[in-house]
Amino acid sequence: MELKRLSHNLTVCKVNSIKDICFDTEFFFIGKTDEEISLVCRTEDTPTGTIEREDGRRT
User: Are 43 and 1 contacting, i.e. CB atoms less than 8 angstroms apart?
Assistant: First the structure.
């Protein structure tokens, strides 16, 4: 495995439903627990209507 630094800004957010996520984007990560669905994606790909969001994350 090779780790590499990503060059774009990321957003970490909570969404209401998996249906809110666009699966056609180049980069995303989804995490789901019994309490929330979390998404990490490029800031420009963040879905509208997120429950919470934190912009400006960098790797």
Answer: no
**SS3 annotation, 10-52:** EEEEEECCHHHCCCCCCCEEEEECCCCEEEEEEHHHCCCCCCE
- Which of helix, strand or coil describes residue 55? strand
Q: State how far the alpha carbon of 51 is from the alpha carbons of 14, 16, 17, in Å.
A: 5, 7, 10
> What's the 3-state SS for 1-14?
CCCCCCCCCEEEEE
Residues 1-59 have pLDDT tens digits of 998 888 889 999 999 999 999 999 999 999 999 999 999 999 999 999 899 999 987 66
- Residue 59 DSSP symbol: -
- d(C-alpha 27, C-alpha 46), whole Å: 11
